[in-house]
Amino acid sequence: MAPAIPLIDVSGLGIEETATQRVAAAIGAACRDIGFFYVVDHGVPQALIDAAFAASRRFFAAPGAVKETVSIKRSPHNRGYVGPKVESLDPSKLPDLKEAFNIGLDLAPDDPEIRAGVPFRGVNLWPDQPGFRETMTAYYDAVWALGRRLHEAVALDLGLEPSSSRASSTARWRSCASCTIRAGPTRRRRASSAPASTPTMATSRCSTPTTPAGSKCVRARANGSPRRSFPAPSSAISATA
Q1: Is residue 182 assigned to a domain?
Q2: In the chain, which residues have pLDDT < 50?
Q3: Is the separation of the CB atoms in 120 and 176 below 8 Å?
Q4: Are residues 38 and 239 in contact, defined by beta-carbon separation less than 8 angstroms?
Q5: What is the value of pTM for the model shown?
Q6: Is-contact 38 236, C-beta < 8 A?
Q7: For position 76, what pLDDT does the model report?
Q8: pLDDT score, position 187
Q9: What torsion do the CA atoms of 63, 69, 74, 80 make, to the nearest 10 degrees?
Q10: For 64-80, how does the pLDDT look when each residue is reduced to its tens digit (9 = 90+)?
Q11: What one-character-per-residue DSSP string does the chain give?
C-alpha cells in the first residue's frame, strides 16, 4: 500500500514562534521523506478557489477565436492563452492536447521593469470576460502570499533566516511567480473525476495547485520504478518544495 501524503496545517506559520517551527519541521520532514505534502488551513478562501475554477471554466468554454485574441504567441514573457498542440515537455512525443492560460504579477505597461525589458516581467493579456481579471489576480495574490509563507518555512527548516526567502518586492520574487489555469482534452475529462479546468500557481520552486476532491497527485521515482498515485483531500492545496 502506497504511503499517504501528509496533510500539514499551516495556519500557525508566522503567528507564533513555536507553532511556526513545528510547521516548518513537518514540511521539512515531508520534503525529505515522501517528497510531497498537502496543506490545510492555508488561508486561501474557499469562495475564491471556487470563483477561480468557475472563471477558468467559462474562459475555456469560449470559442477558439475569442481565446486566440489573448494568445501566448503575442507575448514574449509566457503570458496568455496556450492552445492544444502548442506545448510539449518532451519534443520526442506528441504535443500536449491541453489548453492553458498563464498570468504573472499584474504590472502596468509603464512599470519601470516592464519598460526596461527585465526578463519575466510581462504585461498580462486579459480576455474580454467580465470579472476574469479581478478573480484571477485575487487568486494569484492569495496563493502567492501562501507560497511566500511556505518558502519561509522551508528556509527555517534549513536553518536559514526566513527573511532571506521573502523579499516580496525584489527581483527574485517578482520574476518567479506565475499562475496557470489548465483544461484537459475532452476525452481525458470523461475518464477523470477532476474538474475540466484547474487553476494552479507556481512560485519559484514551490507549486501550489488547488486540488479538488478526487484528483490525484503522482510521484515518479528517479530510479524508474512505477509511478504512485495518491488520493487528494477535498479543498486542500497541494505543494511541492
Answers
A1: yes
A2: 164-172, 188-196, 201-241
A3: yes
A4: yes
A5: 0.73
A6: yes
A7: 84
A8: 55
A9: -60
A10: 999 999 999 988 888 99
A11: -PPPPPEEE-TTTTT-HHHHHHHHHHHHHHHHTTS-EEEES-S--HHHHHHHHHHHHHHHHS-HHHHGGGBGGG-TTS-EEE-TTS--SSTTSPPP--EEEEEES---TT-HHHHTT-TT--PPP--S-TTHHHHHHHHHHHHHHHHHHHHHHHHHHTT--GGGGT-TTSHHHHHHEEEEEEE--HHHHHH-SS-SEEEEEEETTEE--EE-TT-EEEE--TT-PPPEEEEPPTTEEEEB-
The domain that holds 143 is classified in CATH as: 2.60.120.330
Cell 470523461, residue located: 190
Is residue 2 domain-resident? no
Query: Closest by alpha carbon to 55, among 120, 103, 88?
Result: 103
- Quote the domain boundaries for residue 149: 7-239
